[in-house]
Design goal:
signal; about 280 residues; globular; alpha+beta
């Protein structure tokens, strides 16, 4: 057998081995092209839930679009912080269903560590580039204990002109922000000094003196939701350069690394403008 024939045979054998080596090194790509869009979307949700529940913040960030944060760095830092404060012992994907414009809606069940209570949240799942992403946009969870607390405090509202104690410590501020019905804004992060905070604020509909409705909640931004610890509702109009309203939010216990979350509770497309401060009270 001449030398040229031997070389030709070696080349053919090598060409046959290459695809086998690739499939061995990357078994996940075999048949990937045959997956439906729904299966790909479901896999992305599963990847996110597994990473978040195991505390792998870096991996969790890859699978979501989290509108609560201004940067990936801020998001990653908050995800790392929430590893120890995650209130849920178990998470499971219950269903994924087609929605509008080639998107999906994932229903996720969250089990609380302290009492086994079940919370459910829904996440849009959208295609971004060549992958599918879970959209987290401030979906809220709340324990029954907190729900009862909020109901009991609704009849005890102490809203009035500012009554902040001279010895009160400012914990955070929010705004100025201008946003539509159903939308929200957050204060900067803070630690509570007791299980109650005081809020001073300015709340108005631009161009009118009509009262507007907003809710003010103390929340923890964990990897799955905004977990709510207390809430008050404010119906007010305050001049932007006039006296602020005053109210309090009582929580189930003193909490660290929390935010004041303000939601525009108007039923129409009405925008409101808000700003204010949070005090240890």
């Amino acid at each position: 057998m001449n030398t040229m024939l031997l070389v030709t045979q070696k080349i053919k054998k090598t060409m046959l081995l290459v695809p086998l080596l690739v499939m061995s090194a990357f078994p996940g790509i075999v048949g990937a092209e045959g997956l439906s869009t729904e299966e790909l979307a479901k896999q992305s949700v599963s990847n996110y839930l597994e990473a978040a529940q195991s505390g792998n913040a870096s991996e969790a960030v890859k699978w979501v679009i989290d509108t609560r944060f201004n940067s990936t760095e801020e998001q990653l830092q908050q995800y790392k912080e929430s590893v120890n404060s995650n209130p849920f012992s178990d998470v499971s994907l219950k269903s994924i269903t087609p929605a509008t414009n080639n998107t999906f809606l994932a229903l996720v069940e969250l089990t609380r560590k302290d009492d086994g209570e079940i919370n459910e949240v829904s996440y849009p799942v959208i295609e971004q580039g060549d992958s599918w992403k879970v959209v987290i946009d401030g979906q809220e969870t709340m324990s029954k204990k907190v729900e009862k607390l909020i109901k009991s405090k609704m009849s005890e509202s102490k809203m009035s002109e500012s009554h902040i104690s001279p010895l009160a410590v400012e914990l955070a501020s929010y705004g100025p922000d201008y946003f539509g019905a159903g939308e929200k804004t957050y204060s900067n992060q803070f630690n509570m000094t007791s299980n109650r905070v005081g809020i001073t604020g300015w709340q108005q509909i631009l161009g009118t003196i009509n009262k507007s409705d907003a809710s003010y909640s103390i929340v923890t931004k964990n990897t799955f939701s905004d977990d709510t610890h207390g809430r008050t509702f404010v119906n007010a109009f305050t001049y932007w350069d006039g006296s602020a309203f005053y109210d309090t939010v009582t929580t189930d216990q003193r909490r660290n690394n929390v935010y004041l979350k303000v939601i525009n509770e108007m039923f129409s497309k009405t925008h409101i403008q808000v700003r204010g401060h949070v005090y240890g009270n």
